[in-house]
Design a protein that fits this description.
alpha+beta, 21% helix, metal ion binding, 13 strands, two-stranded antiparallel ribbon, metal-binding, Endonuclease, Extracellular Endonuclease, Chain A, mitochondrion
């Protein structure tokens, strides 16, 4: 990742959005390759140094050592705990004790079903994760952070078992409560659900990021985050991402992509969601993940060019609906196609 791109991604905060991120990616495509300058060295009397060829074919080398012999004692890793449940599919990061990503799928039918109640659910450690690597309930106790769902419980009310599984700590990350997990982040989750009014199938990938910040003292970029628990066990992400795939429901049809990166910090409810919109490539660079490598370019659409990417704060629900004007070429969430 270039220093420029790193700086742009790290600059996403409650006060600054991602317009610059989009600009850096678009401007990069417009850069021209400088002409190659050739130098005639035919008159030189010194012989050119031989250029070694790497790697040499393994069959030409008979090593006296066997590094792979380590595997007789076990494979060190990293181990990605792929963990499917009724309502989620995730990969767990053993280093941070947080998920690397959690995927979900919502539809109008899945959201309209109401066969579960979260009052019957409770937070629980994930027994599928080895004990020495898993997040513990005690880690969150008196930490000052919420156990923040990556896939929200409200998206899995079609089954009590499915809803219960969203309370596994492998679906949680430490999140700031007031102003974020209980406010702006919840409004973003509601935005994702409202997308099913326009799209018959919506897939969402959510996860944590640990982004660098420029040190005001020496100007260097550094990654710094809190670790909660006693002893310290669970890392506190600096940011969270959501990558959205809104499908038109047709075989081989179009997929509207949207990506957002939000700081793990209080965010004012009047902050536009589009301030946190980033290219999918920006999330990939920051997370080391790939999200749409098999999606052909001709099927890709930009989500926020098709619908209004707008949150609705609960306390201003009706007023926000009335104020949301329709822009040319865009549909209001819930509008018939």
């Amino acid at each position: 990742m270039s220093k420029t791109t790193l700086a742009i991604i790290a600059g996403i905060s409650a006060a600054t959005g991602a317009a610059a991120t989009a600009a850096i990616f678009s401007s990069r495509a417009e850069r021209k390759v400088p002409p190659t300058v050739s130098t005639d060295t035919s008159s030189s009397t010194s012989a050119s140094a031989p250029v070694p060829s790497y790697p040499r074919p393994l069959k030409d080398i008979a090593p006296p050592v066997n590094p792979n012999g380590l595997f007789q004692y076990g494979f060190p890793g990293p181990v990605n705990d792929l963990h499917p449940t009724l309502s989620t599919t995730s990969v767990f990061d053993r280093r941070t004790r947080n998920p690397a990503w959690v995927a979900e799928h919502i539809t109008p039918a899945s959201l309209s079903a109401n066969n579960a109640d979260r009052k019957h659910s409770y937070f629980i450690e994930d027994g599928a994760i080895p004990s020495i690597f898993r997040a513990k309930l005690d880690d969150y106790r008196r930490s000052g952070y919420d156990r923040g769902h990556q896939v929200p419980a409200a998206d899995a009310k079609w089954s009590q078992d499915a809803l219960d599984q969203t309370f596994l700590l492998s679906n949680m990350c430490p999140q700031v409560g007031d102003g974020f997990n209980r406010d702006y982040w919840a409004h973003v989750e509601d935005f994702c659900r409202r997308l099913t009014n326009n799209y018959p199938s919506v897939r969402i990938v959510t996860g944590p990021l640990y982004l660098p910040k420029r040190d005001p003292e020496d100007g260097k970029w550094k990654v710094s985050y809190e670790v909660i628990g006693n002893p310290p066990n669970v890392s506190v992400p600096t940011h969270f991402y959501k990558v959205i795939f809104a499908e038109d429901g047709k075989t081989g049809g179009n997929v509207s992509l949207g990506a957002f990166v939000l700081p793990n910090a209080p965010i004012a409810n009047d902050k536009p969601l589009t301030d946190f919109e980033v290219p999918v490539e920006a999330v990939e660079r920051a997370s080391g993940l790939q999200f749409a490598s098999k999606l052909p370019l001709q099927r890709k659409r930009k989500l926020c060019q098709e619908v209004h990417c707008t949150i609705i704060a609960r306390e201003y629900n009706e007023r926000q609906k009335n104020l949301m004007g329709q822009a040319p070429g865009k549909r209001l969430l819930g509008e018939d196609k």
